[in-house]
Design a protein that fits this description.
The complex is a heterodimer of chains A (255) and B (269). Chain A is mainly α and 255 residues long. Chain A is built from ten helices and no strands. Chain B is built from eight helices and ten strands. In chain B, the strands form two sheets. Chain B has a six-stranded mixed beta sheet, with helices on both faces. Chain B has a four-stranded antiparallel beta sheet with strand order 2-1-4-5, with helices on one face. The chains are: A mainly alpha (255), B alpha/beta (269). Chains A and B meet through helix 7 and helix 8 of A and strand 6 and helix 3 of B.
């Protein structure tokens, strides 16, 4: 128990020191509070942001865009990836185009997205879907291709036909890859939503911190950033939880 | 089963030859194999590694067809894998995403067996192999011996007339191996099932088989077929067992020596 307390102490030491230093420097007037407000002021502002209901509205909007865009992107990538992994001719058909598009960061699509879809949610959904699409696609293809040959042989030996093998062997054995692709994909989606809200949407967390800059509310910018971080943590933790639930059979995921 | 099939042997291998191309060179893995496994017979294929015994088993399973010659199972030519020739692999090949019970049920579900019957059959085989307490575990939580029990239950659940076993106990420790050998004999005796069992263990082949087929090293061919007429359970320390063991060891060592000369030749060349 003493060991655990010591480790906890070490874990909080650096953050506490940083916060104290920051507080002291801000209060002493070393840097302007306009540029770098004290952490205590950020906390007060964060609370006010939360209490006004504005935070909930912003967070709900951003989350809706992330989940909607992710659902579209992953929903397209999953069946395409399964087909491309399983059938060489489908891979040959789609791979060249996808390899050309894949290195373009989704953020580079912003001007085109605004031109095509105007301002508001539609370009955001497009960009987020694009961001989530490739990680899910690439991992799904890899997952299907890494199916252990011995499992295919065992299934055929037990009399399974092609469809049964796909559904009960290829799909579950590709799941660890698919889920890690989804986890990366939703992370990208979360980055893209913030950028999209800063440029194409005048709502959400990304918009809110940009708006705060207009008024030099640096405390609100940081309060918004903290909110974004917490939601990112929540999304990743949620994905991790879902993965662990779905992959109880998998080696290495249990302690 | 029709009358023609009933009179045919469980497995009949006729003039099977199998070649592979490796690095532009043709390697003859199997050459002129003729072999029969009668209904209810336990046959071991024995030989050093590289003698093609697993290649022959895979051909019988229908995973890789022979280059020439043919293989008949129950009088019908083998063209693809099928549940009438169920295979137990050395690497267990359990589906890691399925529980023990789900693995055992797989072959029955594929066949479209009614759910109640699947449940009863699975329960019965789990009980017979001492797996009842592990039914909801995943393979990763089981020891090697337990995993191979599940693999055996999985093939027996579909009640195949022929069992193909590819060094199934090769990765297990000696005690677990003997334990599973005894269980296999217990299940096999009186079941009427034919077993074709690949091993490189001389004692294992003599402990299990009705006949031991000793294979030559590259190209794989039948060197000698040795009937084992000792009553079961066999005592490896008995003098008859010892005599047979010495005879087979001599045969296998000849092939092992050729294997080693071959490897030295590769190194020298």
């Amino acid at each position: 128990m003493a060991g655990r307390a010591a480790r906890l102490g070490r874990a909080v030491l650096v953050p506490v020191v940083v916060l104290v230093l920051w507080e002291v420097i801000s209060r002493a007037g070393v840097v302007s509070a306009l540029v770098m407000p004290a952490p205590s002021r950020v906390v007060v502002r964060w609370w006010a942001y939360a209490a006004s209901g504005e935070m909930l509205e912003d967070a709900a909007g951003s989350l809706t865009r992330v989940l909607g865009g992710f659902a579209i992107g992953a929903g397209l990538a999953l069946p395409l990836g399964l087909l491309m992994g399983a059938k060489d001719w489908v891979h040959d058909l789609f791979n060249p185009l996808l390899q050309i598009l894949r290195p373009i960061p989704p953020i580079a699509f912003i001007p085109l997205a605004i031109l095509w879809f105007g301002l508001g949610d539609p370009p955001a959904f497009f960009l987020i879907a694009l961001g989530a699409f490739f990680p899910v696609l690439v991992n799904t293809i890899a997952g299907v291709r890494h199916v252990d040959a011995i499992h295919l042989r065992a299934a055929r030996n037990l009399g399974a036909g092609e469809w049964t093998i796909f559904r009960r062997v290829i799909l579950p054995s590709a799941m660890p890859y698919v889920l890690s692709g989804m986890r990366i994909g939703i992370g990208v989606a979360f980055i893209v939503v913030i950028v999209a809200e800063m440029t194409a949407v005048n709502r959400g967390l990304g918009y809110r911190i940009l708006e705060a800059r207009e008024y030099f509310w640096s405390d609100k910018i940081i309060a918004g950033m903290i909110t974004i971080g917490l939601i990112g943590l929540f999304i990743d933790g949620g994905m991790g939880w879902v993965s662990a639930r779905m992959l109880r059979w998998h080696r290495g995921l249990e302690g | 089963m029709n009358s023609a099939a009933a009179s045919a042997p469980a497995i009949r291998v006729e003039g099977v030859r199998k070649t592979f191309a490796t690095g532009g060179r043709e390697v003859v893995a199997l050459d002129g194999i003729d072999l029969e496994v009668a209904d209810g017979e336990f046959v071991c294929l024995l030989g050093p590694s590289g003698c093609g015994k697993s290649t022959l088993l895979n051909a019988v399973a229908g995973f890789s067809p022979p280059t020439s010659g043919r293989i008949l199972a129950g009088g019908r030519e083998v063209t693809s894998p099928g549940p009438d020739r169920a295979m137990v692999f050395q690497e267990y090949a359990l589906f890691p995403w399925m529980t023990v019970a789900e693995n055992v049920a797989f072959g029955l579900e594929v066949k479209g067996t009614p759910a109640a019957e699947i449940r009863a059959t699975v329960d019965a085989w789990l009980a017979k192999l001492g797996l009842t307490d592990f039914r909801d575990r995943f393979p990763k939580d089981l020891s090697g011996g337990m995993r191979q029990r599940v693999a055996i239950a999985r093939v027996l659940a579909i009640d195949p007339p022929v069992l193909l076993m590819d060094e199934p106990f090769g990765a297990l420790d000696a005690l677990t191996r003997r334990n599973l050998q005894d269980e296999l004999l217990r299940i096999w005796s009186g079941s009427g099932k034919s077993v074709l069992f690949v091993t490189h263990g001389i004692e294992e082949s003599l402990y299990l088989a009705d006949r031991v087929v000793v294979m030559t090293y590259r190209p794989g061919a039948v060197k000698e077929v040795i009937p084992v007429l000792l009553p079961r359970p066999r005592d490896p320390s008995s003098s008859e067992f010892g005599a047979l063991s010495r005879r087979i060891t001599a045969l296998v060592m000849e092939e092992q020596a050729r294997h080693q000369r071959d490897e030295r030749g590769v190194l020298a060349g």
